[in-house]
Amino acid sequence: MPDAANSPATTNAALMARRESAVPRGVGQVHPVFIERGENAEIWDVEGRRYIDFAGGIAVLNTGHRHPDVVAAVQAQLERYTHTCFQVVAYEPYVALAEKLNAMAPGAFAKKTLLLTTGAEAVENAVKIARAYTKRSAVIAFGSGYHGRTLLTLGLTGKVAPYKTGFGPFPSEIFHARFPNARQGVTVDDAIASVEALFKNDVEAERVAAIIIEPVQGEGGFNVAPPELLQRLRALCDAHGILLIADEVQTGAGRTGTFFAIEHSGVAPDLITLAKSLAGGFPLAAVVGRAEVMDAPAPGGLGGTYAGSPLGCAAALAVLDVFERDQLLQRSREVGALLTEGLRAIAARRPQIVEVRGLGAMVAVELADAQGRPDAELTRRVVTEAQRRGLILLSCGTYGNVLRILVPLTAPDALLREGLSIMDASFDAAA
Fold first, then answer.
1. Residues paired with residue 427 on neighbouring β-strands, in sequence order
2. 122 and 130 Cβ atoms separated by less than 8 Å
3. 3-state secondary structure of 9
4. Among the residues of 25-118, which ranges form H helices?
5. pLDDT band with cut points at 50, 70 and 90 for residue 64
6. Burial level of 381, CB count in 10 A (0-12/13-18/19+)?
């Protein structure tokens, strides 16, 4: 009798049935599609159907599916060694990547880099490092922020459903401030006042190790942190001896038109977390920060068996070369301009689209009903209709009413326009 696990499945439905039997329901899946192959900003499913990929693996594929330079670098690394654990026997690509990230990160001070595997792992370690350096325990995050699915990062995350539901209690001494949102009437002054209120009502400033913020909220709905907010947070942190952590897991690696999104504000954070597109689809994450801060933990306090894998380091070095050679930061700004123009043209004909927003090629549209209330149901219908027509889209936002675009920066203009055309038709069909 043939092994069912190894038998060929020719349809998405057959694979979905196997998935439901083998994989826990807590692992969500936006589209009932199984990929067969991918190329730049296109994928083909197991039934041979082609899709334009406006999701990019949730901001992982800024250099596209299977970029030839990344593939070549990983293949070359495979021929040499795949794993030693850096803490046992080290390897040069880890050091080379750390040197490059140290040189690229904002701030006129010495830096060091820790390499890890996932974004949540990077955030956890950034908090560990901040606590070790400051000898303080509390952390302030922001409402609607997203920092990961581990227990500590869930505590930092400012969105309950679906991430935090049923998983409490969460670690103590985590507090949430308000994030500016013009549509909800929350100003920068309100946000800063909410931090200062925490100092009065919940935790003294002298006990706060770090304030962590996404320069552009990802899961929260692509809400852009105004430069004034980041500048005032920097001043507030300096006044109280608090470290500022920029969570760039989704925004980093060029998504917003600068390699680090916080560069738009002119602010230099003490620590930056990176992951997602850093290694072009291979699992790799980083914490980049002030050298004296990064050196606070004792030997053995940082690391991980797979942290900074040789394959991930090789891929990331290739990604950085591609960014420089192909001017992908400039391309990110061009992609963002094309998407924003196209989405605003779509919005002009549809009152359900109440805002087009973003930074660089991190662009989203917010949907509301006739009464101005968040319209998550229309958002779901548009996502479903787009997939039916050959476009992979994602939703996000505290209320599930935001469509976000994270298309590879290497996508040609014609493909971007084709994707926008499908979005346009999907609105017609979903209305």
1. none
2. no
3. coil
4. 56-59, 68-78, 92-104
5. very high
6. middle
In three-state secondary structure terms, 198 is helix
Q: Are residues 114 and 252 in the same domain?
A: yes
Assess contact for 110 and 103: CB atoms under 8 A.
no
Query: Is pLDDT above 70 for 2?
Result: no
For 374-407, write each residue's pLDDT tens digit: 999 999 999 999 999 999 999 999 999 999 999 9
E-strand ranges in 183-315 read 208-213, 243-247, 271-274, 285-290
By percentage, how much of the chain surpasses pLDDT 70? Answer: 98
Residue 379 inside a domain? The answer is yes
Residue whose token pair is 């439901």:
20
**pTM beyond 0.90, yes or no:** yes
Task: Give domain status of residue 66, yes or no.
Answer: no
Whether residues 259 and 151 share a domain: the answer is yes
Give the count of domains, the chain: 2
Cβ count within 10 A of residue 236:
18
Does residue 98 contact residue 257 with C-beta atoms inside 8 Å? no
Counted residue by residue, the chain has a size of 431
**pLDDT of 4 higher than 50:** no
How far is the C-alpha of 276 from the C-alpha of 60, rounded, in Å?
A: 4
Please determine, for residue 266, whether its predicted confidence score (pLDDT) is greater than 80: yes
d(CA 42, CA 29): 19
CATH of the domain at 358: 3.90.1150.10
Cα–Cα distances (Å) from 270 to 142, 292, 375, 388, in that order, read 18, 10, 38, 45
Type of residue found at 366: E
Q: How many CB atoms lie within 10 A of CB 297?
A: 17
Residue 45 and residue 88 in one domain? no
Identify the three-state secondary structure at position 357: strand
Can you say how many angstroms the Cα of residue 10 is from the centroid of all Cα atoms in its chain?
A: 32
22 lies in the same domain as 99: no
Among the candidates 302, 325, 348, a domain finishes at 325
Using CA atoms, how far apart are residues 391 and 424, in angstroms rounded to an integer?
Answer: 11
The pLDDT value given to residue 10: 86
Instruction: Please say whether the beta carbons of 246 and 269 come within 8 A.
Output: yes
Per the domain annotation, does 358 fall within a domain?
yes
**Is the pLDDT confidence value at 6 over 50?**
no
